[in-house]
Amino acid sequence: VSTSRLQLAAFALGTVGWILCTISMGLVEWRVWHVNNTTVISSGIAWVGIWKVCFISYLHISPGYKEQFCHKFSGYESSIPHEIYAAQGLLLIAMFLGLLGLTATIFALRNIYMGIIHKTLITRFFLVAGFFYILAGLCVLIPVSWNFYSVTHNQSIAFPPSYYMPSSPAAQEAGAAIPIGIVAVILLLLSGTFSLSYRFPVTANTTMTG
């Protein structure tokens, strides 16, 4: 049990990383656009996520009544950057891989703490968990890096007219989802490293199977 403390930490870090990955995926605040024309986007700020775009408008119900207007990226639209659809898939894969990593870690830790000494099985499950965590972290890193690059280079998107969005902002900044995603990447990669570092203890009094 004393030799698996790092792996217990890996489980804790992996759990938090997986939760943060899920949170970042659900947030719309990936890229914050500042626009000059406030006719429709009343607050002058729009949020560009990987599933939808949103902004505050006063026009859709009645003057003076604030409403959040959102438009989902439904199906495939050629004007929407392919990276957005790739980010959707990568984050879903990351969530699934992270869950598999947590499951493998739970199984290995269960064997250790219940005294089920099976060297090959325990080692392999930690190894598999480590690879799942690292792959999940890389899957999160790609959309986070792309969105951060898009923000720093103030890249535009040719939205269809139905989105009521300008094709380019006056300025833009990173939304809350990006730092949350960065922390998720760090925790998942750390978790994977800790899991891969496991070495089954060999003592004279230990009977090993496998």
UniProtKB/TrEMBL annotation:
<keyword id="KW-1003">Cell membrane</keyword>
<feature type="transmembrane region" description="Helical">
    <location>
        <begin position="6"/>
        <end position="28"/>
    </location>
</feature>
<protein>
    <submittedName>
        <fullName>CLD34 protein</fullName>
    </submittedName>
</protein>
<comment type="similarity">
    <text>Belongs to the claudin family.</text>
</comment>
<dbReference type="GO" id="GO:0005198">
    <property type="term" value="F:structural molecule activity"/>
</dbReference>
<dbReference type="GO" id="GO:0005886">
    <property type="term" value="C:plasma membrane"/>
</dbReference>
<dbReference type="Pfam" id="PF13903">
    <property type="entry name" value="Claudin_2"/>
</dbReference>
<feature type="transmembrane region" description="Helical">
    <location>
        <begin position="121"/>
        <end position="149"/>
    </location>
</feature>
<keyword id="KW-0812">Transmembrane</keyword>
<dbReference type="InterPro" id="IPR004031">
    <property type="entry name" value="PMP22/EMP/MP20/Claudin"/>
</dbReference>
<feature type="transmembrane region" description="Helical">
    <location>
        <begin position="40"/>
        <end position="61"/>
    </location>
</feature>
<dbReference type="GO" id="GO:0005923">
    <property type="term" value="C:bicellular tight junction"/>
</dbReference>
<keyword id="KW-0472">Membrane</keyword>
<dbReference type="InterPro" id="IPR006187">
    <property type="entry name" value="Claudin"/>
</dbReference>
<keyword id="KW-0796">Tight junction</keyword>
<feature type="transmembrane region" description="Helical">
    <location>
        <begin position="169"/>
        <end position="190"/>
    </location>
</feature>
<keyword id="KW-1133">Transmembrane helix</keyword>
<keyword id="KW-0965">Cell junction</keyword>
<feature type="transmembrane region" description="Helical">
    <location>
        <begin position="84"/>
        <end position="109"/>
    </location>
</feature>
